[in-house]
Write a structure and sequence with these properties.
With 158 residues, the chain is an all-alpha fold. The chain has helices spanning 3-9, 14-49, 60-65, 77-91, 96-125, 130-152, and strands at residues 71-72, 75-76. It has one domain: VKOR domain (de novo design (two linked rop proteins), Up-down Bundle), CATH 1.20.1440. The chain is built from six helices and two strands; from the N terminus they run αααββααα. It is elongated, with a radius of gyration of 20 Å.
Length: 158
């Protein structure tokens, strides 16, 4: 039997088999967190410079950005987004279960807050901000991926 045939018949170690999947999850989470940072960064910039937000809908973004729901405790919601996305990105650098569960917990909080804000957009403000929708979709995807990372990763994986 050739060496290649013997190698093919041996089972692969579980850590080697799960490593590429864990790495792909971390990369995807990192990319999504960077996208979220971009959205939140743009909206933070717009808020503090006072420029008009780029919006495809007819004034929906301005209506949402000017609403009472655009701030929480005096802090603009996009700043909270910056903090949340940066924290999720940072959780990728934390090894072990703490990083995986921490990233999931942050994404869950971000998802729930995004769901609340989306509810307010639809039923209270009655306007839709495309940037807010993009951030909500991004956070939803982050919740899915961080939950997969938390549940599927072996205890020794980063």
């Amino acid at each position: 039997m050739s060496t290649a045939a013997r190698s093919a018949s041996l089972p692969a170690p579980t850590t080697a088999a799960t490593r590429p999947a864990a790495d792909r999850l971390r990369i995807a989470i990192g990319v999504l967190a960077l996208i979220g940072l971009g959205i939140a960064g743009y909206l933070t910039y717009v808020h503090y410079t006072g420029i008009k937000v780029a919006c495809l809908s007819s004034g929906g973004c301005e209506t949402v950005q000017g609403s009472t729901y655009a701030k929480l405790g005096g802090l603009p919601v996009p700043v909270l987004g910056l903090i949340g996305y940066a924290a999720i990105l940072t959780s990728l650098a934390v090894r072990g279960e703490l990083g995986r569960v921490g990233g999931f917990a942050l994404a869950l909080c971000g998802f729930l807050f995004s769901a609340y804000l989306t509810y307010r957009e639809l039923f209270t403000i009655k306007a839709i901000c495309q940037w807010c929708v993009g951030s909500a979709v991004d956070m939803t995807l982050l919740l899915i991926l961080t939950s997969l990372r938390a549940l599927r990763a072996p205890p020794s994986a980063p």
